[in-house]
Design goal:
It holds the Pfam family ROK. The chain contains twelve helices and 16 strands. It is of the alpha/beta class. The longest helix is centred in the C-terminal third of the chain and has 23 residues.
């Protein structure tokens, strides 16, 4: 799928709704708002008439939604259409980038909290970082302090604060379980909103990173995104909708046992995927036995491929994207993942080979994705 095709896919931010007489009008307005924004994000410009034709919405509905989003500085009029022989030139609409700032923090990396002020496109305007000796040293006070430093750097109006964490997060901004941070039922969103009087959104780090790959990389509408850092997590896109699960625990593959006699995990079990292929585990093994580096990564790829074979086959997903540091996520590991996946899932009905590939986006992918998540969430609240 080309970049242009991704930019003009109207199901980006929300699946198309089936409108019935029982549908809440508020839901319809939100759906229309997100659909139009998704059509233009990140850098497409269209006239109201073009938006109407692409989305199937009436011109009246498009005009109302666009006007509302212009009033909220989400969209902006950028000029006139090129001259044509038919009718009046339309005014072009695009995403406004100069008004809003977003505060985004990434709590998924070892030894450091990364934060940035971004614009509405996720472009980094300024940064701040906080080193930590271990992930369990991160506290709400640490997060609040870094947020304040970033807010002080913001030159535009702050739209909201987004925090990406490892583990399970509910709809209300509560980190229900993060083993790597040693947080349980932490109402982080409420704490931040009370402190800063700004809307705050807490998300799983893999879900945030997957948004960046989908919008700015080569991610497909159906994708399994794997993040290897201090933990191992996954995000699942089905028809461009993020799968969260009944308990918001979809993608929590880190504590799936793939080797019953393996090393003990932080959760107490033995042989969890996270205990076998996290960056800290693999780096320690490679440092101890550098001559066995390739064998260590091949075994890690086999473990990961084994864990992914069931969801990949169950959901018929062929795009497997892996993000992590290059000393861990490299061709040796990815080739092993691909080989293991296809050996476990090949059938006469599967026509496409499953490919595990490296994430196309760089080190800011969690920060950028969390900024996108803040915009998505705010679009539901106007």
């Amino acid at each position: 799928m080309t970049s242009q095709q991704q930019q003009t896919d109207v199901s980006y931010l929300a699946p198309l709704m089936t409108i019935t007489e029982k549908t809440d009008p508020t839901d319809i307005r939100i759906n229309n708002r997100m659909m139009i924004f998704s059509l233009l994000f990140p850098n497409t410009v269209m006239s109201r008439a073009q938006i109407s034709r692409r989305t199937g919405l009436s011109r009246v509905s498009v005009s109302e939604v666009v006007s509302e989003m212009i009033d909220h500085h989400i969209l902006v009029e950028t000029g006139q259409e090129a001259p044509s022989r038919r009718g009046k030139k339309g005014t072009l609409i695009g995403v406004e980038t100069g008004y809003w700032n977003i505060i985004s923090l990434d709590l998924s990396q070892p030894f450091i909290i990364q934060g940035a002020v971004t614009n509405i496109l996720g472009q980094v305007l300024s940064r701040a970082e906080q080193p930590v000796s271990k992930s369990t040293d991160i506290t709400p006070d640490t997060v609040i302090e870094l947020c304040q430093r970033l807010i002080d750097k913001a030159e535009g109006t702050v739209l909201g604060i987004g925090i990406a964490v490892t583990g399970i997060v509910d709809d209300h901004g509560t980190v229900t379980d993060s083993r790597n941070l040693d947080w349980s039922d932490l109402h982080l969103g409420d704490l931040l909103e009370e402190r800063f009087d700004l809307p705050c959104f807490i998300d799983n780090d893999a879900n945030s990173a997957a948004l960046t790959e989908r919008f700015f990389g080569d991610g497909y509408r159906n994708m399994l995104f794997i993040q290897i850092s201090i933990g191992v997590g996954a995000a699942i896109l089905i028809d461009d909708s993020m799968v969260l699960g009944t308990n918001h625990a979809a993608g929590e593959i880190g504590h799936v046992v793939v080797e019953p006699d393996g090393a003990q995990c932080t959760c107490g079990k033995h042989g969890c995927l996270e205990a076998l292929v996290s960056t800290s585990t693999l780096r320690a093994q490679m440092a101890a036995k550098p001559e066995e580096r390739d064998a260590i990564l091949q075994q890690a790829g086999a473990y990961l491929g084994k864990a992914l074979s069931m969801p990949a086959s169950l959901l018929d997903i062929t795009d497997i994207v892996v993000y992590g540091p290059p000393d861990v996520v490299n061709d040796t590991l990815l080739d092993s993942v691909t080989e293991t996946l296809n050996a476990a899932t090949t059938t006469s009905t599967r026509q496409s080979k499953i490919m595990a590939r490296r994430c196309e986006c760089g080190e800011n992918n969690v920060i950028i994705g969390e900024s996108i998540s803040v915009v998505q969430s705010k679009l539901k609240q106007f």
